[in-house]
């Protein structure tokens, strides 16, 4: 009986991974593992974690079921890592409450449709199924910025040339008028 009571009284999943900092505020547990040189997602993240920050590490992949035991998770920050691969069902188990997922600043080239199962709604899965490359769209953003900048410079150069030609045209007209006014050049100016 004592052993059974001990099992019931031990707060399972509430210990903090050694490479992280755990805090609790108003009943919400935050697990911060930022800038800890982690190469993989820690397996011993407390089950009652609501906020999880794994940003600025060296994580290269998100394995399947990586967060399956974190059903209370609302915010997940995986930004500024080296993530290249997201395996099937990587986010299974967190779909019910997850409000924020930050994957920015990684090396993700594609996300398998199965990697997002249980995390996103059917409309996004239909977009992915249609072959839309969301990562490619992001890559195009600098191209648009370069085109806008080039257009701005081109418009500025054209504007400068128009002003230059008009100014020189006025000077040329003034010189022609001056030459016509000189004695003895009236026959040559025409």
TrEMBL record:
Main location: membrane
Annotated coiled-coil segments of the chain: none
Designated name of the protein: Leucine-rich repeat-containing protein 3
Subcellular localization, as worded in the UniProt entry: Membrane
Family the entry assigns: Belongs to the LRRC3 family.
PANTHER family: ANTIGEN BSP, PUTATIVE-RELATED, LEUCINE-RICH REPEAT-CONTAINING PROTEIN 3
Organism: Calypte anna (Anna's hummingbird)
Pfam families registered for this protein in UniProt: LRR_8 (PF13855), LRRNT (PF01462)
GO cellular component, one term: plasma membrane
SMART domains according to UniProt: LRR_TYP, LRRNT
Keywords: Leucine-rich repeat, Membrane, Repeat, Signal, Transmembrane, Transmembrane helix
Listed transmembrane segments: 144-165
Positions of the LRRNT domain: 15-51
Keyword Protein transport found: no
Topology term for the membrane: Single-pass membrane protein
Cleaved signal peptide residues: 1-22
């Amino acid at each position: 009986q004592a052993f059974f009571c001990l099992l019931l009284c031990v707060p399972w999943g509430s210990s903090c991974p050694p490479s992280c900092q755990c805090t609790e505020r108003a009943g919400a547990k935050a697990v911060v593992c930022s800038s800890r040189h982690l190469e993989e997602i820690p397996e011993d993240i407390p089950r009652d974690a609501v906020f999880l920050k794994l940003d600025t590490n060296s994580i290269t992949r998100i394995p399947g079921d990586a967060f399956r035991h974190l059903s209370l998770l609302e915010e997940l920050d995986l930004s500024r890592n080296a993530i290249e691969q997201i395996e099937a069902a990587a986010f299974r188990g967190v779909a019910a409450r997850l409000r924020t997922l930050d994957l920015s600043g990684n090396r993700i080239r594609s996300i398998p449709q199965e990697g997002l199962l249980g995390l996103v709604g059917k409309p996004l899965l239909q977009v992915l199924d249609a072959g839309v490359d969301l990562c490619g769209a992001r890559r195009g953003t600098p191209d648009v910025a370069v085109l806008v900048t080039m257009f701005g410079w081109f418009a500025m150069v054209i504007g400068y040339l128009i002003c230059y030609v008009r100014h020189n045209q006025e000077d040329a007209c003034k010189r022609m008028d001056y030459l016509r006014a000189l004695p003895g050049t009236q026959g040559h100016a025409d």
